[in-house]
Amino acid sequence: MTSTETTPSTAGGGTDRRRWFALAIVMTAAFMDLVDVTIVNIAIPSIQREAGASFSQIQWITAGYALAFAAGLITGGRLGDIYGRKRIFLIGIGGFTVASALCGLAVNPEMLVASRFLQGAMAALMVPQVLSIVHATFPAHERGKVFGLFGAVVGLGAVSGPLLGALLTEWNLFGWEWRSIFLINLPVGVAGLILGSRFITESKAPRALKLDLVGVALVTLGLLMLLYPLIRGRELGWPLWGYVSMAGSLVVLAALVAYERRKSARDGSPLVELSLFRVKSFAAGIAVQTVFGVALGIFFLVWTLYMQMGLGWSPLKAGLTGVPFSIAVSVAAGMSVQQLVPRFGRKVLQAGALVMAAGVLLYLWESGHYGLGIAPWQMALPLVVMGVGMGLIVAPLTDAILSEVPREHSGSASGLLNTVQQMGNALGLGLVSVVFFGTIGDHLRPDQVGPAFADAFRNSLGWVAAVMGVIFLLMFALPKRPALHAEGEQAATEQKEPALVS
């Protein structure tokens, strides 16, 4: 394969059937990443029980992946532009497979946490290349069909991840218990690596930006200084150094802004394009995306802990309970983009925030009303309401945020959106220490565990509902009638990582 710029006309000729094999390979990799994010949540209680992980280590198992993924997304995309998307994709899928093996073979919680960081970093190399390869491989008239297939893969990954995680954990294949949720990636990853090296055509950007490794380091350091004290603070008795570290994270992030401003003036290739924040809708959208990530980070982890550790449900029962939520998100997302937003604009997103908040409050009431005897069918109504609200938001949000962004910055803007959403997710997972574990006593008798986890779940739902109210207010700064530029829509499609993977 050549390592020169590949155009759709050269790589995607009508007689070149190889591109369909390439599509299957990159779609499988995208599916593997989506499933791996959602599959872990459902297995967390089993990991805590079988591996002896502490509550803070449970948070790091999920937050570590999100943090490494967020920190590396933009750089991963640029590495593909500079060194070749096929090359970086193969490195990413190979590294992701190795990291999955290390997760499955982890001998202690510390090794599992470290392996999850590595897995997130490898996903940051792999995922940005997927749609870039599609764009470079297929001619324009075929991309609509291809992106439709990608949407179907995203939906399938969101629905099947929790169910697959539940089944693998329940079946306890070969006595592997929770380890099978990671080890199942090995044959898929090896096949993707072998077939990808044969069928994917190499491509590069005609003019690639330079890497901003200092920016990545400052972002990662600032978030670690904020998240580490949040996650460990409760176990350590909230020491003084934790507050100093969290305050210091603001200094580091301020240094990032100053550095990015200088780098933009010097060579025009900053990690964060600061001029974008002069666009009111984009600045507000970044806030919405970050805060929405916080809400999702809190909810999905505490929801799993509530069902399995609080109510004592099996992983399969918990996984099946989430099916109505996933279906509602998919249906509402399709209606939102195709029918509602073109007619009602911003009001659809704001209605989504209010509907999701209503679902959360209904869930809170039902949890208190039915207590530990609540049944899955009783959870269906609040979950469907929440799913409808989330679906009204996630699909059109990126388009609304990018609608007033200058065309030449649409790629940078969409990449930054995905990054801050993942960072918000990591922050939400860190806040679980405060809003969930912070209300649970340290030494509970067996008969106290259920009521304590149920109370903590309701406390967390109150926080999530409040966050959705904040999101509703922030959305007033979004444009009333989003009308995305064609280039912006294309860039958003190429770089978007769906919110459901949080």
From TrEMBL:
Main location: membrane
One term of GO molecular function: transmembrane transporter activity
GO biological process: response to antibiotic
Keywords in alphabetical order: Antibiotic resistance, Cell membrane, Membrane, Transmembrane, Transmembrane helix, Transport
Residue stretches making up the Major facilitator superfamily (MFS) profile domain: 22-483
Subcellular location: Cell membrane
Superkingdom, taxonomy of origin: Bacteria
Topology class, membrane: Multi-pass membrane protein
InterPro entries xrefs: EmrB-like, MFS, MFS_dom, MFS_trans_sf
Gene3D superfamilies: MFS general substrate transporter like domains, Multidrug resistance protein D
SUPFAM superfamilies listed in its UniProt record: MFS general substrate transporter (SSF103473)
Transmembrane segments: 20-44, 56-76, 88-107, 113-134, 146-168, 180-201, 213-231, 243-260, 281-306, 318-336, 348-365, 377-402, 423-440, 460-478
GO cellular component, one term: plasma membrane
A Pfam family reported for this protein in Swiss-Prot or TrEMBL: MFS_1
PANTHER family for the chain: ACTINORHODIN TRANSPORTER-RELATED, MAJOR FACILITATOR SUPERFAMILY MULTIDRUG TRANSPORTER MFSC
Name recorded for this polypeptide: DHA2 family efflux MFS transporter permease subunit
Natural source organism: Streptomyces coeruleorubidus
